[in-house]
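Field reference: "sequence" (input) and "structure" (output). Example, Long-chain-fatty-acid--CoA ligase:
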Amino acid sequence: MTSADKPWLAHYAPRVVAELPPVTESLPQLIAHTVADFPRAVALDFLGATTSYRELGEQIERAAEGLRRRGVTHGDRVALVLPNCPEHIVAFYAVLRLGAVVVEHNPLYTARELRHQFEDHGARHAIVWQKVAQKVLDLPADLEVNTVISVDITASLPASKRFAMGLPLKAAREAKEKMWSPRPKGAVPWEDVLRGRRISRRVPVPEASDLAVIQYTSGTTGAPKGAMLTHANLITNTLQCRAWIPEIERGSGSVVYAMLPVFHAYGLTLGLTFAMSMGARLVLFPAFDPDLVLAAHKKHPATFLPAVPPIIHRLLARAEEKKVSLQGIRIGVSGGMPLDTTLIEKWESATGGVLVEGYGLSETSPILMINPLTDERHVGSIGIPVSSTVAKVVSRDDPETEVPVGEEGELTVRGPQLFRGYWKRPDETAAVLRDGWFRTGDVAVMDERGFFSIVDRIKELIITGGFNVSPSEVEEAIIALDGVLDAAVVGLPDPHSGEKVVAAVVTEPGAAFDAAAMRQTLREKLTPYKVPREIVQLDELPRNLIGKVLRKKVKEQLQQRS
């Protein structure tokens, strides 16, 4: 494509470069540069307890040696099952330092969900939040998870908060129950991994082209699959984010809020790797809690705040309720679902900063597009391609044919942040990657200025609160329930989460229908955001001539009933 084919370049903010040089180093090298450049700066802030970059670097090197002594080596997959906490950051870089591959997991996954992913990636080592470690220890023996390292995240809290958790008060007991449980038998304490010397410099660092992370996603179709992201993919996307906001300078004392989970692609790049490359203070929240965010804001307002609309809604409401000013938050980026104009106005009025919408997928590390941080932005669109990225809209029937400006088609993209493919799924990789272009599965329109808007979704993926939900995965869990003959799962519009998961079920003859009981049982099998908000009984599900359930028809039926 020539510059004439990239009308969006005319709308780049001043100082934003169109092309970035190729990445030649790995993530451990990138964090090592930051440690050397800003040793005394605060790297991590966990509810008030801080870690300097020098301390972070030392912990990474000790943890890498501890993992090496336990058998982790180049190319091994290592599962991380952790919330946002300092140990997560240390473990992430320590695994990568050995040339091993991080596999991120949601710590709220059920045993069933974890088993499916472990069966797929085959990790033999896991670093796990102590509260959920037993679920990993209980995985079937044939998965051969040889080492389960248990992390007590309360050990990283400020001393005052640890002391408060031990008080004989109901609030203290509830706070402790949320974050702590005894270390289960058979788990290795995280402290043992850190105990000892630093890793030898003779242990080689990985190459830029090496696999760094397997990020599970529902992809464009089907059940969750592992998107393979290299060191170069992740560093490129980090540099693309940095290039988009040149007004935030490296080493300037910037503050990044990790309200989004680091185990999610969005939180991983716009939170973790972005902050670490900048020498910024990364403020970690173990889960989104508006009161904790407001408390942190009073001390260190965010320079950069990645979020999703539900979080923005809740933070604004809580700040108004508690009469806390949000002034001082400079730049917010929202993704995962459309950003309402009214919400933008409320946020910018409350903060004095700017809030723009962006777009991406796990397969793209994840950022592809962001609105300019200038008056050039187009509210209601997903923005324009970031540096070194090109996009086009093609015919849904023929991906080789580009459609005219203003017409709908499938959004396809190309850039150095594109993933290597799906773990152990060459056919599914080939279906979405062709000649360097990635088919997103989203229906889009590009206007004459080069701004893109998502208008529909080819894939049947449900996006709720910024998280992807595979309908087939939820359907499988529902059909396994007693008395259920068939099920179809769809996403219906929701003002708070973008979409809500709704299930239509057909029960066996004579079986009782109890939606509340079904949802209760599903909570034991599925992460909370995957559990259907509503379950509706139908006499039958619409199907095509070969018997496939027509989810689009199901969706229409459910919308008519509401």
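The two ends are 47 Å apart (CA to CA).
The first strand starts at residue 42 and ends at 46.
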